[in-house]
Amino acid sequence: MIEYLIFLAISTATFALFGLGLNLQWGFTGLINFGHIAFMTLGAYTTVLLSLKGVPLLLSAGIGAIVAAMLGLLIGFATLRLREDYLSIVTIGTGELIRLIVNNQDLPVGNTWISGSFGVQSYVIPLSTTPNLFFRLVMIGVLTLLTGITLLSLWRWMRNAQISASNNTVRNSSLKQEFISRLIVGIALGLLAAAIYISGVIGLYNYNPKAGLMLFILLMLAFVFWRVEILVRSPWGRVLKSIREDEEVPKALGKNVFSYKLQSLMLGGAIAGIAGSFFAWQLGAIYPDNFQPQLTFDAWIMVILGGSGNNLGTILGAVIFFAYDALTREFLPKIVPLDVERIGAFRIMFIGLLLMVLMIWRPQGILGKKEELTLGK
Questions:
Q1: Model pTM above 0.85
Q2: For this UniProt entry, what's an example GO CC term (predicted)?
């Protein structure tokens, strides 16, 4: 059970990071990217191939993020001056093109070349060796600090909504609804953080390399979330939002809209490249089929479900997505008398139905703001 919770925590955090890159591009800038998996693919393969050449892991992951950002630069120069639909067409094609190239070309694995279809195995994973007791206690202390900051931030987030609802008399009903939704989400995320903390402490003390990787990805997710939140609340982020709403307005104010779009596409791609590194480290062996287009649309589900243009909503969307995946994988075969193939199709159909209901009931997503809705553009 502990190992499974650690696995779910790594998967959720990795795809929350992946979704944050897409949310920056779509939720804040309005860029329609249907090939987000391309950035993850480049990040994953660059990291593992460089690590097999002896490059330090952190440097390999950093270079992977830069390579993914350079892909965003190439796509941006080719499409961002054209209509929005060209970007969506080019990105989905690029994602499949990169996967097919990796599948059909020989790759430099160590000192030899092997066919990409055979995948890449036996590469180094962070924190794979068992540390001494002192270092394990330090890791537990870091996890404790991270959990405490998370719980404190959630409490402040809920408290601010309560204060707004109690002080405002004009929009009191809508603010009360927001407070209730924040209260439910905050309690759920708090309980999840507590479960991850307990699993992490046990996994770190009786050292499990996956627990070390979990701590690493949680720290990276917290850092990226913090920096992206600062960016989107800055003047740079406000320009991105204005581009999302109507790019003619920032143009009229003298802003270089093309440059801002390019920066958003590159930064979102770099974040997805970092997520690719963690995805590869979690799998332990990567194959081209690990990077199917479906992963891009899974990220879209997370962003839309949590609320586009809301970074915490993206994390919430990832939590709900993997909770749904785990629960239906475990309990649905016991309820619905179908074979394995039909159960898989039923799970996809059911989450599609849930999204349709959500779009009717709350089109802005769970934590999204209706006044910032861009789905109808």
A1: yes
A2: plasma membrane
